[in-house]
């Protein structure tokens, strides 16, 4: 079976927040997810009732040449095990898609004001939805120790650095 290709278009754009991607210190980062004008404001009706969103976005600053297919240590740290492309949650993925769960602060027309969105100014948003707790992981969650070590400072604020 060959790989299927399909076209998607962005529904919104990230406005504000960080200008450059970084590995850590995303805590407290505020931005706006601005819905494109072709989507009526009614498409957001009721979203203000939710505390968090699920946001799918495109790592638009990463070129195809920066993709990494294969095995490497996370953040190239030899203390962490070599793992495959689909074990990493970074921007060097084949389709360069990111997934985030920012807190929704307020809604102003087509503008969704959020915090803790780890996408930069100008990022195309492919899709968004409210976070439903019922869609979170069921049962016990397990993972090796290296993600916890690697992400220790991820949600710290820049001032805490």
TrEMBL record:
Please spell out the taxonomic lineage of the organism that makes this protein: Bacteria, Bacillati, Actinomycetota, Actinomycetes, Kitasatosporales
Q: Does the keyword Methyltransferase apply?
A: no
- The domain of life for this entry's organism is Bacteria
Q: What is this protein called?
A: Transcriptional regulator
Species annotation: Streptomyces carminius
Keyword Disulfide bond found: no
Q: Which UniProt keywords apply?
A: S-adenosyl-L-methionine
- Sequence ranges assigned to domain TsaA-like in this UniProt record: 8-140
As for family, the record states: Belongs to the tRNA methyltransferase O family.
Q: Which Pfam families match?
A: TrmO_N
Q: Which InterPro entries match?
A: TrmO-like_N, YaeB-like, YaeB-like_sf, YaeB_N_sf
